[in-house]
Amino acid sequence: MQHGPAVRRRKLGAELRALRTSAGLTSGEAARLVGWHQSKVSRIETGTSGVKPADVRLLLDAYTVADTQLRELLMMLAGSDDSGGRHHWWHAYRGVLPPTYRDFISLESQAGAMRTLETTVVPGLLQTPEYARAVTKAAVEGLSEDRLDTLVEVRLARQDVLRADPPLELSAVLDEAVLRREVGGPGVMARQLERLVEAARLPQVRLQVLPFAAGAHIGVTGPFVIFSFSNTSDLDVVVLDHLTSSLYLERKEDLQAYTEAFNALQIHALSPEDSLDFIAGTATGA
């Protein structure tokens, strides 16, 4: 388990090493092509040092990588401010957002798919402004109104990934407690449930409810997120959110374990169609 930036360096380094190998180059040959010392290439590939986006671009050119999406993703991992012409809007919030949150947002913005188990609150990508405000205020005590407004603004801006072209594919399993926990009062909760019903009808969103009747399940250990990238599964990562930080799991064994856990949760949860009815029924008090 590592923090986000370290994971990103290691994933970027591993991918660059694989691309170099596919190009039939040794690390020494690659270094000569870009005018570096071999040790710099080695440090980048092992993730022991950071790498500038400009350096990544040099290596990708040397390896004749033409895949635009892959180049964009690797540039993002290197911290590029401009990805395919789209500025990373969250950089404007550097003074407000902790590094782990910014790293989460950057991965979320570039992922092709996101699978999440939520056991306590509605996923951030599906929250209404009022619900987001109530959750943020409860989770972080002593916030000034200005800072609270900013955090809610960020939460809502993140939701643009569901309207992108192509949009992020979101699969979420929600414990029934998410629907029953009254956040912000009856009015706020009623509008939030209506929002979930609307979201469940979107083609890029798959919502499933895990009812109390399902009993104990593998998700009782806590919520998690799995980010998947359409370019390469080697960049997939599991995120575990904690009160003061996030942990990122990148080992294949971890990814397999959480993927299998999510698949099991989907089997035990209501179908998307029945989940939609369940959410609608909860909204009307049925």
What is this structure, in a nutshell?
This protein has 286 residues and is α/β, with parallel strands linked by helices. The chain is built from 12 helices and 8 strands.
Write the layout of secondary structure elements.
Layout (H helix, E strand, L loop, with lengths): L3 H19 L4 H8 L3 H9 L6 H10 L5 H10 L4 E2 L2 E2 L11 H12 L2 E6 L10 H11 L5 H14 L10 E7 H5 L5 H15 L4 E6 L13 E5 L8 E5 L4 E4 L2 H17 L3 H13 L2
Radius of gyration, CA atoms, in whole angstroms? 21 Å
Unreliable sequence segments? 81-86
What is the distance, rounded to the nearest whole angstrom, between the alpha carbons of the first and last residues?
43 Å
Overall pLDDT score: 87
Helix tally? 12
Specify the structural class.
Answer: alpha/beta
Shape: elongated
Order of helices and strands: HHHHHEEHEHHEHHEEEEHH
Helicity range: 40-55%
What is the beta-strand fraction? Answer: 5-15%
- Biggest β-sheet description: 6 strands, mixed
How many strand units? 8
